[in-house]
Write a structure and sequence with these properties.
Blueprint lengths: L2 E2 L2 E2 L1 E5 L3 H10 L4 E5 L10 E4 L4 E4 L10 H9 L6 E6 L1 E5 L2 E4 L3 H6 L5 H16 L10 H9 L1 H16 L8 H11 L7 E6 L4 H8 L4 E2 L5 E3 L3 E3 L2 E3 L1 E4 L17 E11 L8 E5 L5 E4 L12 E9 L4 H4 L2 H12 L9 E14 L13 E3 L2 E3 L13 H21 L1
Parallel strand pairs: 3-4, 3-15, 4-11, 8-17, 15-22
Antiparallel strand pairs: 1-2, 5-6, 7-10, 8-9, 12-13, 13-14, 16-19, 16-20, 17-18, 18-19, 21-22
Bound molecules: flavin-adenine dinucleotide.
Length: 413
């Protein structure tokens, strides 16, 4: 334990998402830790518990990749590795409900919406993007970079629908660096398809284990500066802020980070709509259809589970709509996939106001350092390990690194 003049040092952690919980676990043997959580423990990776069927399912679809080393290490530490499963899933694209599996080179060759020349160009671009130093393209827009590299036709037919699905109205602002890095990560697939991972029965198990010995206050944190830091009226020697930066009400001269919002409808269906896990859906109000039970076994849930996912901005008209209205709009588009009202057992809408930074041009200069003032630390989605794509892995790494930095600073003080 680290002591100051008055006793054991006290650290407040704002946010009980993965970053906050990992930081709390790393710090708890050195200082007195208190975590403040405004909404739900687990943050973006929190789950919905289906009472009647007795299972947990993430409110927002989640899976992991083979190179998520920090996540794999954490699972080992928490003795959860045996629950991790890897599976080759099918991915595809749908135009107005007509689904094309694009999981294998053979299926891509048969895809009717691109000609052979465009397919070859796409393959070459994918290979090239893995070799590019993406950081040098941070100030260029994805649209400009793609126009130069693959041309207008492939941009409008292939990339624009994907960018629109992922970033909604902010697609035009996204940096080429983000796109290159993302293509490099996601194109690393085997001949028979993409292999992804899942913690059987849900990632909530990580959250549960990480929360075990942590003092979590279910309160929205209000931070004030005095001799040290005051959180909800209590004095602390240091603060680790892991919530979205918009929630930070004190001025620390940080650059403004724009966030996007996510809306996911979780739907239980009597029958699956396809055998594809991830469908990029073009021409619909949702950008992706994710059939969870084409990834994990149906028996784990006793029903077919599907997400309809859409990205927008916190103050958009769509985000402001109530759940009922959103569902109505989504379900009307889902009819294109042959789903009728009587096929739906139940449905729910989950919204995240700040679901990730918009990786716009110049974003890399906005990445937050861990220590921003004496005794004040920031970690989470705007930290280096979460660039160019925020992930569970990135937040775990950020949680570990900020704790390391804080421990070092306490030893030096
Ligand atoms: C739709 C969607 C799909 C995703 N899919 C994947 C995936 O497949 N694979 C993957 O690796 N990652 C995925 N992610 C990303 C992953 O969930 C996040 O990167 C990670 O969970 C972020 O953790 P965090 O702790 O940094 O932030 P958060 O989870 O946002 O935690 C911050 C916490 O702070 C709390 N908070 C906010 N303000 C206050 C306040 N004033 N006082 C107290 N508490 C406050 C919030 O309630 C929240 O719980 C996905 C995210 C979304 C939205």
């Amino acid at each position: 334990m680290v002591f100051d003049g008055e006793g054991i040092m006290k650290v407040a952690i704002i946010g009980a998402g993965l970053t906050g919980l990992v930081a709390a676990n790393e710090l708890k043997d050195y200082v007195q830790v208190k975590v403040f959580e405004a909404e739900e423990v687990g943050g973006l990776v929190s789950s919905y518990f289906n009472d009647s069927k007795g299972y947990h399912i993430e409110k927002f679809y989640h899976h992991c990749f083979k190179n998520d080393f920090e996540l794999l290490r954490l699972l080992k530490e928490l003795r959860l590795s045996s629950k991790l499963v890897w599976k080759t899933v099918k991915v595809g694209t749908a135009f107005d409900g007509k689904i094309f599996s694009l999981s294998t080179p053979f299926e891509i060759l048969r895809y009717p919406y691109l000609n052979l020349k465009e397919k070859v160009k796409l393959a070459m671009f994918t290979i090239k993007s893995r070799r590019k130093n993406y950081e040098t393209f941070d100030d260029e827009s994805a649209i400009d970079g793609l126009k130069k590299e693959v041309g207008e036709a492939l941009l409008s037919k292939f990339f624009m629908p994907l960018l629109n699905a992922k970033f909604g109205e902010n697609a035009k602002d996204v940096s080429y660096a983000w796109l290159l890095a993302r293509v490099a990560i996601r194109s690393n697939r085997k001949l028979k398809g993409e292999e992804i991972g899942y913690l059987r029965h849900g990632f909530w198990q990580i959250i549960e284990k990480l929360s075990e010995d942590i003092d979590i206050k279910k309160e929205k944190a209000k931070i004030e500066k005095s001799r040290g830091w005051v959180v909800n009226g209590e004095d602390f020697d240091a603060v680790v802020f892991t919530a979205p930066l918009n929630e930070l009400k004190i001025n620390l001269n940080l650059p403004e980070v724009r966030y996007q919002s996510s809306i996911c409808a979780l739907i239980a269906l009597k029958n699956p709509i396809s055998d594809v896990y991830w469908i990029n859906s073009i021409g619909t109000t949702f950008g992706a259809v994710i059939e969870h039970t084409n990834f994990m076994p149906f028996e784990d849930y006793g029903e077919n589970l599907l997400y309809l996912a859409s990205y927008t901005t916190p103050n958009s008209e769509f985000f402001m709509k109530d759940d009922k209205e959103i569902l109505k709009i989504f379900l009307s588009d889902l009819k294109n996939f042959g789903v009728r009202d009587e096929d739906i057992a139940w449905s729910k809408v989950f919204k995240a106001k700040y679901s990730g930074p918009i990786y716009e041009r110049g974003y890399s200069k906005k990445i937050t350092p861990y220590r921003v003032a004496k005794g004040f630390y920031i970690a989470g989605m705007t930290s280096k390990p979460n660039y160019p794509e925020r992930s569970m892995n990135g937040s775990i790494k950020a949680g570990k690194e900020v704790a390391e930095k804080l421990k070092k600073d306490l030893e030096l003080d």
